[in-house]
């Protein structure tokens, strides 16, 4: 059982229909609105029970719930092969994100939100020493992760090698003298964008496995942007390079 909270997170979970949803809980003093009415209607369409309960009871389940809580099953992860098949079914070159031990749930949620917006086919996360898709991440992503395909793997380096065998280019985001500026790199075709952890960047093995490195030009005094901001900027450049298709 997981507790999803917040109106956008609940709406996208109900729209995606990828999880088993046990019930929708609505604060008894929550006023009607187009979004609240939509949530109740979405629940009714699939036979999900809707219960009105005291707001203080919701407060015990989750903070920042906005009067809405969903009781659901676990987030449905997929295999890397499923992501590649998804791209093939859409007749599109694979467009993936690989996160190298990103631990901040807010960064992960922000990356997932942008990834869904630009049509990324899937996101690959390590099973150990990294943030996973928790209710907090779902909330930060405004529910976008409910539409995203996420694979959790025990060995990122091995996955990179498999992707390269499938002719997917591996582009590491790294502030390195040898890295190309992202807007000058060839980001068309099958590509997996690898983003490192906060502060540490890419691990040595992952960095050495990448086909090439890209970086953002920096004009100010700070040395780098955080992982989610850097990733979002480059994701839109990849989408632009693909002619926004």
List keywords for this structure.
245 residues, alpha/beta, 60s Ribosomal Protein L30, Chain: A, Alpha/beta knot, 2 domains, 7-stranded parallel β-sheet, 4-stranded mixed β-sheet, 9 helices, 11 strands, 37% helix
What is the topology?
Blueprint: E1 2-5, H1 7-16, E2 21-27, H2 34-45, E3 50-53, H3 55-61, E4 68-72, H4 80-89, E5 95-100, H5 105-118, E6 122-126, H6 135-140, E7 150-153, H7 156-165, E8 169-173, E9 180-181, E10 191-196, H8 204-209, E11 212-215, H9 227-241
Parallel strand pairs: 2-3, 5-6, 5-10, 6-7, 8-10, 8-11, 9-11
Antiparallel strand pairs: 1-4, 2-4
Nutshell version of this structure?
This protein is α/β, with parallel strands linked by helices and 245 residues long. It has helices at 7-16, 34-45, 55-61, 80-89, 105-118, 135-140, 156-165, 204-209, 227-241, and strands at residues 2-5, 21-27, 50-53, 68-72, 95-100, 122-126, 150-153, 169-173, 180-181, 191-196, 212-215. It starts with a strand and ends with a helix.
What do you see in this structure?
It contains 9 helices and 11 strands. The protein has 245 residues and is of the alpha/beta class. It has 2 domains: 2-72, 2-Layer Sandwich (60s Ribosomal Protein L30, Chain: A), CATH 3.30.1330; 80-241, Alpha/beta knot, CATH 3.40.1280.10. A 7-stranded parallel beta sheet has the order 7-6-5-10-8-11-9, with helices on both faces. It has a 4-stranded mixed beta sheet with strand order 1-4-2-3. Helix 5 (105-118) links the parallel strand 5 and strand 6 (122-126). Helix 1 (7-16) runs parallel beside helix 2 and helix 5 runs parallel beside helix 9. It is elongated, with a radius of gyration of 19 Å. The model has no long low-confidence stretch (mean pLDDT 92).
């Amino acid at each position: 059982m997981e507790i999803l909270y917040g109106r956008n997170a609940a709406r996208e979970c109900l729209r995606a229909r990828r999880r088993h949803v046990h019930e929708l809980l609505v604060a008894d003093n929550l006023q009607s609105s187009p979004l609240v009415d939509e949530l109740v209607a979405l629940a009714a369409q699939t036979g999900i029970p809707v219960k009105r309960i005291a707001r203080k009871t919701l407060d015990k389940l989750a903070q920042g719930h906005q009067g809405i809580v969903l009781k659901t099953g676990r987030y449905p992860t997929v295999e890397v092969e499923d992501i590649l098949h998804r791209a093939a079914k859409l007749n599109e070159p694979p467009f993936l994100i690989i996160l190298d031990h990103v631990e901040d749930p807010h960064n992960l949620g922000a990356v997932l939100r942008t990834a869904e917006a630009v049509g990324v086919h899937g996101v690959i996360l390590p099973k150990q020493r990294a943030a996973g898709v928790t209710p907090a991440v779902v909330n930060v992503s405004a529910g976008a992760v409910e539409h995203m395909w996420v694979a959790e793997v025990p060995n990122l380096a091995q996955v990179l090698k498999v992707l390269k065998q499938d002719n997917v280019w591996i582009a590491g985001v790294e502030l390195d003298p040898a890295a190309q500026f992202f807007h000058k790199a060839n980001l068309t075709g099958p590509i997996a964008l690898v983003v490192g952890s906060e502060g540490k960047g890419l691990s040595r093995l992952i960095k050495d496995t990448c086909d090439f490195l890209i970086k953002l030009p920096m004009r100010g005094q700070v040395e780098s942007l955080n992982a989610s901001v850097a990733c979002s900027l480059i994701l839109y450049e990849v989408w632009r390079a693909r002619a926004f298709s």
